[in-house]
Automatic annotation (TrEMBL):
PROSITE patterns, per database record: G_DYNAMIN_1, G_DYNAMIN_2
GO cellular component, one term: microtubule
Recorded family membership: Belongs to the TRAFAC class dynamin-like GTPase superfamily. Dynamin/Fzo/YdjA family.
SMART domains: DYNc
Protein name in the entry: dynamin GTPase
EC identifiers of the protein: 3.6.5.5
Keyword Nucleotide-binding appears in the UniProt entry: yes
InterPro entries according to UniProt: Dynamin, Dynamin_GTPase, Dynamin_GTPase_CS, Dynamin_N, Dynamin_stalk, G_DYNAMIN_dom, P-loop_NTPase
GO biological process, one term: receptor internalization
Keywords recorded for this protein, A-Z: Endocytosis, GTP-binding, Hydrolase, Microtubule, Motor protein, Nucleotide-binding
Pfam families in the cross-refs: Dynamin_M (PF01031), Dynamin_N (PF00350)
Name of the encoding gene: DNM1
Gene Ontology MF term list: GTP binding; GTPase activity; microtubule binding
Length: 319
């Protein structure tokens, strides 16, 4: 089964999952997922949001993401979002989606920086997305603030582990360029759960914020702390850009210009940036040239679909 097979399979899985929930049954299936891990404020939500091409994720300084967000992207002719906790309500204004994520986060964690491992489930239907499941996670942190428990470091770690230990989870290990990569929480966790680096991609954010005279060329050329699948550099919107409501199209154009004009990255420009990261993820998930991860995911999905169809078709025993 090649590229198309997997793309056809995921909508089928979604429909079967919906059919099961409609009859009150929980179809437990580990769909392929892409999760972001990294330290607090590394730029994880910013990276994910760019994949959707809409402003809808809470981003900012301090601890922002405080519950896992399981974001299922569904390729469809119209664009809207739907939360599992208010099924049937269609959100067409993405500003409202962001407000709902914030309200639903506060509902479980309170408003004073608390955290919770209970995920928020959101589906985004759009003609501009591929069928992917993304998971936005709280950033790793060490010192408790506000209502955070004394063992915040370990609670967040446990939360991440629930996702990234799964073999079908592709890990985006996000590290900011303006702090030393040797201290990267993202790389530490990724190495632990995926020592061979089969399903880890390094993402370097904040390249625009490096001190003058320094650059991340060695990292991006995969020479400093090599990863099997290497690193992709991105430039997300700064806090000033967010406050000034810079839109995603302008941000992507600025990112492209940054790589093309930077003397240390110009030679790598075609392998850097958000669109390239998206392309790589799509290839990894759907192509048959990544032995291991994609083969395992495809065969697991096919087997699950077959067993579900069997369960639906088999006559129920008389009561
Ligand atoms: N200049 C610049 N700022 C960035 C970049 N990436 C993220 N930021 C800023 O960094 C801050 C944190 O970004 P988020 O995307 O919320 O980071 P996060 O990792 O999701 O944060 P938590 O959910 O709190 O762990 C925001 O103010 C962003 O504007 C980047 O590449 N360049
Ligand atoms: Mg976040």
């Amino acid at each position: 089964m090649g590229n198309r097979g997997m793309e056809d399979l995921i909508p089928l899985v979604n429909r079967l999952q919906d059919a099961f929930s409609a009859i009150g049954q929980n179809a437990d299936l580990d769909l392929p997922q892409i999760a972001v891990v990294g330290g607090q404020s590394a730029g994880k939500s910013s990276v994910l949001e760019n994949f959707v091409g809409r402003d809808f994720l809470p981003r900012g300084s301090g601890i922002v993401t405080r519950r896992p967000l399981v974001l299922q992207l569904v390729n469809a002719t119209t664009e809207y979002a739907e939360f599992l906790h208010c099924k049937g309500k269609k959100f067409t204004d993405f500003e409202e989606v962001r407000l709902e994520i914030e309200a639903e986060t506060d509902r479980v964690t309170g408003t004073n920086k608390g955290i919770s491992p209970v995920p928020i489930n959101l589906r985004v239907y759009s003609p501009h997305v591929l069928n992917l499941t993304l998971v936005d996670l709280p950033g790793m942190t060490k010192v408790p603030v506000g209502d955070q428990p004394p063992d915040i470091e370990f609670q967040i770690r446990d939360m991440l582990m629930q996702f990234v230990t799964k073999e079908n989870c592709l890990i985006l290990a996000v590290s900011p360029a303006n702090s030393d990569l040797a201290n990267s929480d993202a790389l530490k966790v990724a190495k632990e759960v995926d020592p061979q680096g089969q399903r880890t991609i390094g993402v370097i954010t904040k390249l625009d914020l490096m001190d003058e005279g320094t650059d991340a060329r060695d990292v991006l050329e995969n020479k400093l702390l090599p990863l099997r699948r290497g690193y992709i550099g991105v430039v997300n919107r700064s806090q000033k850009d967010i406050d000034g409501k810079k839109d995603i199209t302008a941000a992507l154009a600025a990112e492209r210009k940054f790589f093309l004009s930077h003397p240390s990255y110009r030679h790598l420009a075609d392998r850097m940036g958000t669109p390239y990261l998206q392309k790589v993820l799509n290839q990894m998930e759907f192509c048959s040239c990544c032995p291991g991860w994609s083969t395992m995911v495809r065969s697991r999905l096919t087997a699950t679909c077959a067993s579900w169809i069997q369960a639906i078709l088999l006559p129920r025993p008389p009561k």
